[in-house]
Task: structure prediction
Amino acid sequence: MKINRASDLSKIKKQGLELLSPATTRITVGSATCGLAKGAGKVLEALKYEVKKKKIQAEVVAVGCNGLCYAEPIVEVIQPGKPRITYGPVTVERVGELLKAIKTGKVVQDLALARHDEEAYCPNIAPLKYAKGKVPAALSGIKEYRKQDFFKNQLKLVSKNAGTISPSRIEEYIALDGYKALAKVLTEMKPEDVIKEVTVSKLRGRGGAGFPTGLKWQACRSAAGDKKYIVCNGSEGDPEIGMHRSFLESDPQAIIEGMAIAGYAVGAEAGYIYVNDRYVVALERLEEAIRQAEQTGLLGSNILGSGLSFSLKVKRGGGAYVCGEETALLNALEGLSGEPRPRPPYPAQQGLFGKPTVVNNIETLANIPLIALHGGKWFAKIGTASSTGTKIVALSGAVAQPGWVEVPLGTPVKAIIETFGKGTGTGKKVKAFQTGGPSGGVLPASLLNIKLDYDQLTKAGSLLGSGGLLVMDEGTDMLDMAKFLTDFFAEETCGKCSTCREGVKRLQEIIDSIMQGYGTKEHLNLVKRMAAAMSDTAACALGKTAAVPFLSVLKHFPKEVEGKLLRKGA
Amino acid sequence: MATLKINGKKITAPEGATILEAAREHDIKIPTLCSNEALKPYGACRLCIVEVTKNGRTTIETSCTYPAEDGLEVKTESPRVAEGRKLVIELYLARCPNVKIIRQLAEEYGIKESAPQMGKDNDYCILCGLCVRACNEVVKAGAIQFAGSGINKIVDSPFHKTAEDCVACGSCAFICPTGIIKKNDLPSTSQCTPEGCTQTGAQREILNWQVEHKLKVCTKCGNPYAPEPHLTKITRQYYFLPEFFNICPSCRQYPVVDEDKCLGCGGCMEACPIGALELEDKGGYDKKAHVFTGNCTACHTCEDYCPMKAIS
Amino acid sequence: MVYDLAIVGAGPGGLHAAKWANKKGLKVALIEKRKDISKITRYCSEHIILDEDYNGDTIKVDTAAGKIISTKNGWEVNYRGEFCPVTDKYYSSPKLYHCHFAWPDKRPFAYKYGKGTLLKGLLEECLALGVTYITETTAYDVTDSPAGVELKCVSKGKKFKIQAKKLIAADGASAQLAQKLGRNNERAYLGFALCLAVYMSNVKNYSPSEWRGWWGRCYGTNLAPLMGTGPEGHFDWADMIILGSPKQLPESTFEFFTKQGPMAFMFENAKIEAKHCCSTRAFTPLKQPAKGNCIMLGDAAAFVEVQAQGALSCGFRAAEAVAKELEGKPGFEEYNQWWLKSFEFNDEGMMQVTTGYALIPTYTDDEIDYLFSLCHGHTMDGSWSQYKSPKMMWNLILKDPEKIKRERPEVWAKIQTRGTQTLSDSINK
Result:
């Protein structure tokens, strides 16, 4: 079904809505890598087999991840007129029981996690109703999702579709107002208007640096060049996160729509999505989504009859940490070594193949359709004055319920750990936490009230980065942590500039000396000196922040470090 | 033209110049290891850092890559620059304590040793990339590259085997600042046995890339003077007649134009690959060719291209 | 200072490109190695060819109004000089059997004109339009990158650089800039030829409206000596054109032809008035003259020559192509397509046709006599074209193949090898 005009979208929307709440039963299985790793694939097969065998009128659909990673495999059941029930963890052995319950209108109590009476999928628009009339008694016992901590404290805007729609069905994306933003942009807005909205929204890059997206787009639009490019950074090099992978496996069309809008705004007709080669499922789903978008006419030439041509290619990368530096990413895309380029010139003026290029993170692009549809002003009201919008946070480490959540920026870290993670789960208290990946170093528990905000975190010596939140409890040896993170830098340095390559090597040696008991105060002073000089002289942020992990441990846990130093006369 | 301040002094820089180029034009000293005017700036050694203030914002940048823009204020020596440079030199000392130019650099900046808490290696390659860049950008042979990554980075031939694309031009050895690239020119040898004598022609070996190539011998003076594969490459790449390299540069002679024979057709100018010829207006209808021997490489191409045999 | 467009070479191609690029609002730098381009010292392209559809164009000459007009490419240039019509072409064998080309109504198929006058006029127009003209400067090297073009130039021994967004290399058949850009790697190199042109007065049997050539070893060379019209102001002088190589200098052939050869009688009382010469490399044509930021224009991309009219068309089209590219439109693609379909040497049959001229060394002088005798007495269409003429000749020769098989079987055997000799072989053997 080719979509030639914006008005055709409503036809597809209808089809999609019927798939989302069909006349028969819809059973979804959370099939992102996190779920698959826990056996969701087997559960999906078992459900399909049993449904066919028992001749049950139901469709079994693989969907993405809703963030409840600790309770996977997640299975959801949507029956006509009844609320949507979320079950987890559902193992293969429980499949029979689950299907029986569906048939008899009952519920598997010990697996039932939540109930959706309606789907609030889009701000400013009335929600989709699942339940018609009174909720049946058997289901009323399950807590409604908006009353549960996990859901009620989130603001699911970017991730509104994740876990609900099938990533392999473009109709389901369109059903929940997918491509409505692109249609609006192409029919009602000029490219300059789009950039204006993004600027007004104060959206900042979600990959690390937090650079204002509107400024970046404007710089690229103003740059001279016969060809321009949009590049999506899906490299996700930070070691402790995977939510962008999750996102690609759950809602890849959002990225495609975001990139098409970006292309229209800056005048680019081609885009590249650079994805970590190990993300097999994400790559499959992304390529399928692109194919469907092309077949539908939402990618390619003359999109929605507007004259806009935009096409996408997926490129596989090594997932190197240094590709968080956009010029290293561009070099890798061009087939060269993934090493940073001297700046200036910046990618907006001379990027991919020397042409003006916008490099944006996956999450940044996923925000674009929302901003285009609801306006920059609406977006800027969410979060804080300098850090607007929401952030997807991946909770890991010492937390009882790891997973990912989407919260407004400005949410205190403590709240995130307690409300969603439900504390450390180890019986020990929180000792330290890390935001922004290895470049963010560690922060002590005394700073837990710090807000998830670009500027506040930078001021505290850390950074927001890509949204990882690693929790360490009191059983963690902080020096061990510093070594682990410094070793990570040693693995990931590209080796081009002398500062980083040689500096990280020496930092490893210094930490080893201290851990083996040969450290002195001079070692600590040297690290402080190196940190300042590396921050000034390294060619990119990797080198500039390579000393931060140890420095932050030294700053916030001085006793642990000094306690290991060589004592006089020893 | 850009107007900027370096160390408080107002200077102008031509369009497209970097801060390093502008500084050098005005005899302002900035140390470098990985920069060379024949090569594109690389920014690997970090020695040339300067403090740049632009629109009120101050950052530390490599002067070899940063463009000299209007209104910049640059400091080539400031506490931050000094500290940064000091660490860079120390890190090089820790890596290459026995390399002459590193020791000289350290002495110049008053650094005796790398910090004792740092470990010490004994490397001789500073990974400045000059050899790789010369081979790829200037010679365009592409015989060597960086291999491995990060801490284990080295310069190597493909798969650590004989560099098949190496033409033994020796540019890598010439440009290497530490002397770790070993190029040896070996004279021809003859081995005599009762059965007879075998001759091995003059050779050049570049040990690092496991390369050995014959040297071309001048038909006039009999001296070996350049590696054959390099001469073949130049012949193909630039427009030389095959016999040209039979004579070495010392034996080559520069062209002389017989003005009686020259008709001013300009064929020699069109043949000259380096623009060393021009036509002089000698009044009236006549135009005669004139050679600027300062630019001429005595390649002899013009001689063959003159229809009147006016060039010898 | 970065120009929109740098043009190397103020020949007809470069000048015309400069004029039209400037008219389209581009900042143009025209770089020329000579000081005075109106004084022609190099022998090259001094005819306007009137063959219909010659290299994709039919040129009309308005002698009264002083204009040369392209009917298919849409330009016209002013020319205030003299024209001399050429109405007859004779190709002669050793025993003076002729292949004769002329229109029945004796209308001209070409005009000899004053190239210096044409160039001077075009240059004046360019200067009046405000084109930056950088003279006595040789552009000897160039690098092309996404950021633009950088030319290495030298003037009176001093070196400097010129930067531009786009480049038109109109530096002639030696294709020096194409060589530096590596473009000649896409072409086969056929060798280089030396050429001498001698203007003489008092040549017997010379007529300004005739173009003549002599084929046979007895004339002293494998490359037929040619004779055409004298220069503007002296159409009564004969123009003797001799090709050669370093191993057989054109001068020595000239000496032989005028003093010892069978046609020496023509030059008994002749006086040498002026000499011009040139040397040029011959390549197969570039299929894609426009690439990156550079267009190789006219002869620089051709199989030897496009003639002045071809160069004017190329210049006109290239200016448009560059203006379009600077607006983000596919001007270069359009230029390449026009180039491919317009010039005969881009046609597959081209190489085949040039072998039609490779009579020596294949045939003996006696055999050439035989072949030409089959044409003698007929008049073929008036044509300048190096592609049409051999075609007509061979059509005439092969009108009665049985006759040849019967009378001269060894000649017939040689005719079967037609197509294996190339122009390169003629030059280099």
